[in-house]
Write a structure and sequence with these properties.
By secondary structure, the protein is an all-alpha fold. 75% of the residues lie in helices and 0% in strands.
Length: 411
C-alpha cells in the first residue's frame, strides 16, 4: 500500500486544524490576558498525564505483537534492527554537523552578555557510566519498570517476551489474543483523549506564553532563531527524502499533523506516540514495522535534539570565549553522537547530554543555566522535528527493510 496516498477518513474540520486553532487561541490569551493564562497549567497537565497513561500499555502490547509476528523470521528482524540503527546514526550525525555549522555561520553568541536565568537540576550527571547504562537496559522488575515509564528496559523485555511467544507457537496464542485486545482498546482510548487536544493545547500555550513570554524570548532571540533555521533545514531534507521515495512531502506532513502539533505544544514526544502509531498504520505501514521502529526511534532517533545539543554547546563555548578549533569541533561531534544515544534511558536526557559535552571540552556545567530560561521555546521545535524524523524512519525502513511484511492495518 502506498504510504503517500492512503489516508484516514477526512472531515470538514480535521483534528489537526482544531489543534492549530487551539494553539493560536492559547498564544493570544497568553499575550493579551496573562492573568487568565497562568492558572491554566492544570488543564494541560491533565491531558499530558492522560496520554502518558496510555503509552506504556500500548508500547508493550504493540512491540510484543510486532516481534511475535516477525519471530518466525529472525533474519528479517535482525536486518530491520540493523537498518534502523544505521539510519538513526546517519540522521543524528547530519543533525549534529548542521548545528556546529550553523553556529560557525551565524555566531549567535557574538556580542551577547549572558547571565544565568535558571537553576540546574540536582545531581545532574556529567558523564555516562557505560556499564550501568547497559545493565539498566535489563529490567530487574518489569512491573516497577513499566510503573516508572522507563521505555528502554520495557522495550528490551517486550522484545524478549515477543520472541518467547513466537517460540512456543500455539501455546502462546491466548496471550497474543489478550495483547491484541489491549492494543485495540488503547487505540480507542487514545482517540477519546486526543479529542480533547484542542482545549488542552490552548491551555498549555496560554500558560507558557503567560509565564515565560516576551522578556526571555527576546533576550535569546538570536539563538532561538538560528535553531529554528536549522530545524527547517532538517525538515527540508526530510521532504527531499520523501520526494525521492516517491511520496508527496506535503501530503505526508499533513497526515502526521496531529502528532506534530501535539509535540510542538507539549514539548513531549511520548505524548504523541499513541496517535502517531495509529496514523502510520492507517497510512499502510504494517503493524510489524510501526510497532518495532517507532518506539525504538522515539528513544534513539532524536534528530531535533541532536541539532539543539550541538548548537547550544557551540553557542556556550563562544559565550565563554572558548575558541573552537578543529579538535574541539570533532570532540563535540563525536561526543554528541554517542551521548545522544547513550542517554536515551536517562531522565532529563537533553540536559545530561549537554553536561557531558560541556565537560568534554572543558566548560563549566553551570553554563546550562544560561539557556535554561528559554529552553521551553527551543524544546517545542526540536521535539516536533524528533517526531517527524521518526515518521521518515518508519517510511524508510518500511520501503527498504519491511515492505514485504504484509500485515493487517487497523481500520
Amino acid at each position: 500500500m502506498d504510504v503517500g496516498t492512503t489516508s484516514p477518513k477526512k472531515s470538514k474540520f480535521p483534528l489537526w486544524l482544531q489543534i492549530l486553532v487551539g494553539l493560536i487561541v492559547g498564544i493570544i490569551v497568553g499575550f493579551i490576558w496573562p492573568e487568565v493564562g497562568k492558572p491554566l497549567q492544570p488543564v494541560g497537565t491533565a491531558f499530558i498525564k492522560a496520554i502518558k497513561m496510555i503509552v506504556m500499555p500500548l508500547v508493550f502490547s504493540a512491540v510484543v505483537l510486532g516481534i511475535y509476528k516477525m519471530g518466525s523470521n529472525l533474519k528479517q528482524l535482525g536486518r530491520l534492527g540493523l537498518l534502523a540503527f544505521f539510519w538513526f546514526y546517519l540522521a543524528t550525525g547530519f543533525s549534529v554537523a548542521l548545528g556546529i555549522s550553523l553556529n560557525a555561520i551565524f555566531h549567535p553568541a557574538a556580542g551577547v552578555s549572558l547571565a544565568a536565568t535558571g537553576a540546574l537540576p540536582q545531581n545532574l550527571a556529567t558523564s555516562i557510566d557505560w556499564v550501568k547504562f547497559f545493565l539498566d537496559i535489563i529490567p530487574q522488575n518489569i512491573v516497577d519498570t513499566v510503573a516508572k515509564q522507563q521505555i528502554i528496559p520495557t522495550l528490551f523485555f517486550a522484545i524478549c517476551f515477543g520472541l518467547s511467544l513466537a517460540a512456543i507457537k500455539e501455546a502462546g496464542e491466548p496471550v497474543v489474543a489478550v495483547l491484541e485486545g489491549i492494543m485495540k482498546a488503547m487505540f480507542v482510548l487514545t482517540q477519546g483523549v486526543v479529542a480533547t487536544a484542542p482545549f488542552a493545547v490552548a491551555a498549555i500555550m496560554a500558560w507558557v506564553i503567560a509565564t515565560q513570554g516576551a522578556t526571555l524570548l527576546l533576550a535569546m532571540a538570536k539563538l532561538i532563531g538560528v535553531l529554528y533555521i536549522g530545524l527547517f533545514v532538517v525538515m527540508l531534507l526530510f521532504w527531499l527524502i520523501l520526494w525521492m521515495l516517491k511520496e508527496n512531502p506535503f501530503t505526508t506532513t499533513r497526515k502526521v499533523m496531529e502528532p506534530l502539533l501535539l509535540a510542538f505544544t507539549t514539548a513531549s514526544s511520548e505524548v504523541t506516540l499513541p496517535v502517531h502509531m495509529q496514523i502510520l498504520e492507517k497510512a499502510g505501514i504494517p503493524n510489524k514495522v510501526v510497532s518495532f521502529v517507532l518506539p525504538l526511534g522515539y528513544s534513539f532517533n532524536l534528530d531535533g535534539a541532536a541539532l539543539y545539543q550541538s548548537l547550544v554547546v557551540c553557542f556556550l563555548a563562544e559565550a565563554y570565549g572558548l575558541h573552537l578549533d578543529m579538535a574541539s569541533i570533532i570532540t563535540i561531534l563525536i561526543t554528541t553522537l554517542i551521548a545522544n544515544k547513550g542517554t536515551a534511558n536517562v531522565p532529563a536526557a537533553s540536559l545530561v547530554v549537554l553536561a557531558v559535552i560541556l565537560t568534554s571540552i572543558g566548560l563549566p556545567v553551570e553554563a546550562i543555566a544560561i539557556v535554561a530560561g528559554v529552553d521551553r521555546f527551543m524544546d517545542m521545535g526540536r521535539t516536533t522535528v524528533n517526531v517527524f524524523g521518526n515518521t521518515i524512519a518508519a517510511i524508510l525502513l518500511y520501503k527498504f527493510g519491511g515492505k514485504h511484511l504484509a500485515d493487517e492495518t487497523l481500520a
